[in-house]
Design brief:
InterPro entries: DLC_sf, Dynein_light_chain_typ-1/2
Distance between the termini: 40 Å
Pfam families: Dynein_light
CATH superfamily: Protein Inhibitor Of Neuronal Nitric Oxide Synthase
Structural class: alpha+beta
Number of domains: 1
Keywords: Cytoplasm, Cytoskeleton, Dynein, Microtubule, Motor protein
Radius of gyration: 12 Å
Family: Belongs to the dynein light chain family.
Subcellular location: Cytoplasm, Cytoskeleton
Shape: globular
Strand content: 15-25%
Strand order of the largest sheet: 1-3-4-2
Length: 94
């Protein structure tokens, strides 16, 4: 397990949810090859959908851009190993 080695770059999640995000990422890295970003992201999304309800999105990789609207208190962007993790719950634009 790799908990404690993540670097949170930006978040508005409550601490317990942040810990869950990093724990899920660590578990996914234990299960999947570090180059299998799609499976890693799918694992994390399913964990969050199960624990916090449907609508979660997860992007995993080393080089990506994005622009999105998220529900307040559901966003985290962090680095673990060589990968970047973006997890958020989508929201409608006003």
């Amino acid at each position: 397990m790799l908990e404690g080695k993540a670097l949170v770059e930006d978040t508005d999640m409550p601490m317990n949810m942040q810990i869950q995000a990093m724990s899920s990422a660590s578990q996914a890295l234990d299960l999947y090859d570090v180059f299998d970003c799609k499976s890693i992201a799918g694992f994390i999304k399913k964990e969050f959908d199960s624990k916090y309800g449907n609508g979660w999105q997860c992007v995993v990789g080393s080089n990506f851009g994005c622009f999105f609207t998220h529900s307040k208190g559901t966003f985290i962007y962090f680095t673990l190993e060589r990968l970047k993790f973006l997890i958020f719950k989508g929201a409608s634009s006003p």
